[in-house]
Design goal:
Helix content is 43%, strand content 16%. The protein is of the alpha/beta class. It has a single domain, classed as Rossmann fold (3-Layer(aba) Sandwich), CATH 3.40.50. The strands form two sheets. The chain has a seven-stranded parallel sheet with strand order 3-2-1-4-5-6-9, with helices on both faces. Strand 4, helix 4 and strand 5 form a beta-alpha-beta unit.
Length: 260
């Protein structure tokens, strides 16, 4: 119960990592407001949280639209009573080589994945600062903020932007005891990625990832619980990489250097 008496907003929590975070927060004692555009799936998550004895609500919101974000935060905070934790989790992906990438795809990914972080963090900070009780802002980045992802230039740009933005936001909000940190997940099973993980992709990942596993969403959520809790009180502007060792490993899978 590390989050007992805490309130939280989690964006994109109708599925995937966001859903896992919302449920883990509830299991740790937090009340949760879910901001998403998928009402059916979001309400299923809300119902599950309520069964656990925690308060939860769904607010429909396109987090790339400033007016919708402002209205959604007002509604969520009215339900919650206050705001202690924000998780910027919303993320989408499209595939296209940069030379052929439609401008509309670039704008859509940057709007949904990066602009949303600015809009939601701004609203959260405007609520947290007057409360004078500190707060936590957590963003879901990706290992592809630091590793290339061919055919996903807009996605990698957005994730890199999230990290740069978080560092500046962390500096600005530090005087108010509001911490800002971000998680870099590696390969993770979600509703979004399962169709992408063909047998060939999984074989390559199992060869490339030192721990020889693809993460479950709950493993990423565990990191979010830590960053939302008092255990991370002296940590801000930092990344938490949960990737099975993908980024740190410079070995050559299935190959050995010739011994001299």
């Amino acid at each position: 119960m590390r989050l007992i008496h805490k309130t939280s907003i989690v964006t994109g929590a109708a599925s995937g990592i966001g859903k896992a975070i919302a449920k883990c927060f509830a299991a740790e004692g937090a009340d949760v407001a879910i901001l998403d555009i998928n009402q059916v799936r979001a309400e299923e998550v809300v119902a599950d949280i309520q069964k656990r004895g925690r308060r939860a609500c769904f607010v429909r919101c396109d987090v790339g639209d400033a007016k919708q974000v402002q209205a959604a935060f007002a509604e969520a905070i009215q339900f919650l009573g206050k705001l202690d934790i924000l998780v910027n989790n919303t993320g989408v992906i499209r595939f296209s080589p940069i030379v052929d990438m439609p401008e509309a795809d670039w704008d859509f990914i940057l709007r949904t994945n990066l602009k949303s972080v600015f809009l939601c963090s701004q609203q959260a900070a405007r609520q947290m600062i007057p409360q004078k009780t500190g707060g936590r802002i957590i963003c879901i980045s990706s290992i592809h903020a630091v590793l290339s992802e061919p055919n996903c230039g807009h996605y990698t740009a957005a994730k890199g932007g999230i990290e740069a933005f978080c560092r500046t936001l962390a500096t600005e909000l530090a005087p108010h005891k509001i911490t800002v940190n971000y998680i870099r997940p590696g390969a993770t099973f979600t509703e979004l990625t399962i169709p992408m993980y063909t047998p060939a992709v999984k074989r390559s990942l199992f060869e490339r990832v030192p721990l020889k596993e693809i993460a479950q969403a709950e493993w990423i959520a565990a990191g979010a619980v830590f960053l939302a809790s008092d255990e991370s009180r002296y940590m801000t502007g930092q990344h938490l990489t949960i990737d099975g060792g993908y980024v740190m490993d410079g070995s050559l899978p299935s190959a050995e250097y010739c011994k001299q």
